[in-house]
């Protein structure tokens, strides 16, 4: 792929200092905001008002990752809040194509996410309906978990199918992405890299973003 994008996840940021935590990652391409409802995943994080405020803080685009039930009903509000991309879980949507079209009509990019145990294959027939495919490389719910190596063949298969259909769909990886794992994700065909603990636990977040970017571009 021609361009790599680094999206720090603020799940591991200091929530009492969110403004300066956003400023720490100004060298990144987007901020990844993990929305969790305590039902789809066993954790609770932010909601639509947090997304509006981060958008207002700017200038970094917001990549909203919705780990919430009933995506069909709940996702459009995140597009209206000004997110640059809205990614919902396939497992939480009953009409994913209709929802992607609704999000795109609100001039947001539409992403579809898969938990590790959800197969990608049937989705590949309709992948042109989406701007981004998020292949989770941990079970969603928490930051700081270790990368699932078994997701690499899934990334590779998805990239092969997308290239064969001459589509320009991004492949995002999320979970356990760091200096040790990012190159393998990139080689397999991912081009959007979420990193939470790797960036927020670094002494110098800007430098870590630069290191990850150069490892990803090989
Ligand atoms: C997990 C979230 C991730 C998480 C990544 O459910 O979707 O975005 O914050 O954190 P790290 O990079 O620490 O695995
Ligand atoms: Zn995420």
Automatic annotation (TrEMBL):
Annotated residues for binding of a divalent metal cation: 32, 34, 65, 174
Q: Which pathway does this polypeptide act in?
A: Carbohydrate degradation
According to its UniProt record, which reaction does this protein catalyse? D-ribulose 5-phosphate = D-xylulose 5-phosphate
Residues that bind substrate, according to the entry?
A: 9, 65, 141-144, 174-176, 196-197
| Active site (catalytic residues) | 34, 174
Query: Which is a GO BP term held by this UniProt record?
Result: pentose catabolic process
Q: What is the required cofactor set for this protein?
A: Mn(2+); a divalent metal cation; Zn(2+); Fe(2+)
Q: Which Gene3D superfamilies match?
A: Aldolase class I
Example GO molecular function: metal ion binding
Keyword Transmembrane assigned to the entry: answer is: no
Q: Does the keyword Zinc apply?
A: yes
Note the InterPro entries from the entry. Aldolase_TIM (IPR013785), Ribul_P_3_epim (IPR026019), Ribul_P_3_epim-like (IPR000056), RibuloseP-bd_barrel (IPR011060)
Identify the enzyme class: isomerase
Q: How is the cofactor bound?
A: Binds 1 divalent metal cation per subunit.
Q: Which GO terms describe its cellular component?
A: cytoplasm
Write the record's keywords in alphabetical order, separated by commas.
Carbohydrate metabolism, Cobalt, Isomerase, Manganese, Metal-binding, Zinc
Q: Family membership, please give it.
A: Belongs to the ribulose-phosphate 3-epimerase family.
Q: List the protein's name.
A: Ribulose-phosphate 3-epimerase
* Species for this entry: Brachybacterium endophyticum
User: Which gene holds the coding sequence for this protein?
Assistant: rpe
